[in-house]
Amino acid sequence: MVKKIGIALLVLLASTSLPAAELKIGFVNVAKLLEKAPQADKAKKKLEREFAPRDKKLVSEQKEIKQLEEKLAKDGAILSDDEKQKLDKDILNRKREAKRLQDEFREDFNLRRNEELTQLQKEIFEAIQSLAKEENFDLLLTDGVVFASDSIDVTNKVEKKLEQSFTR
């Protein structure tokens, strides 16, 4: 809220000290950049490669637990009480371990995703600042904008800067 008020005050102050025709304002759709920047795709693929082995292991464990449950349901009538208890206990222990591993996986994945997102946001911010300086913008707005006409939307220019920095 303070950020929005600060931006509104900045616009008001800038517009009172400069004629409106001299003020250069632009808009950047950061959400679009987070989705379309080549760095975002690279980060997504990196996370997939990093976490695919653990994900496959978790899926495999779930299948094994399901098979054990099916065996217990199918063969429960012919198993001795000791065998049933042993199988039941094995299933319960494996479910607990699988849940623990799933929770660890989720936490680790979220942590790494946030690290990658932070890095991407930093690169986007740097590209926006670079464009603002190169093209002499007085003000570039991002979040909290209700409407921005296509004439001031510079998202595509920022996206091109990100693509250029990605290929270097």
Task: Tell me the CATH superfamily.
Answer: Skp domain
Mean pLDDT: 87
What is the CATH topology descriptor? Protein Binding, DinI Protein, Chain A
Number of discrete domains: 1
Helix count equals: 5
Low-confidence runs of at least 5 consecutive residues:
none
CATH class term = Alpha Beta
SSE order in H/E notation? HEHHHEH
- Taken from the alpha-carbon principal axes, the silhouette is rod-shaped
Provide a brief overview of the structure.
By secondary structure, the protein is mostly helical. The protein is 76% helix and 4% strand.
Task: List the SSEs and their pairings.
Elements: H1 2-17, E1 25-27, H2 30-36, H3 38-75, H4 81-134, E2 139-141, H5 155-167
Parallel strand pairs: 1-2
Helix pairs in contact: 2-3, 3-4, 4-5
Task: Outline the structure in words.
The protein has 168 residues and is mainly alpha-helical. The protein has a single domain, classed as Skp domain (Protein Binding, DinI Protein, Chain A, 2-Layer Sandwich), CATH 3.30.910.20. 76% of the residues lie in helices and 4% in strands. A two-stranded parallel ribbon has the order 1-2. The protein is rod-shaped.
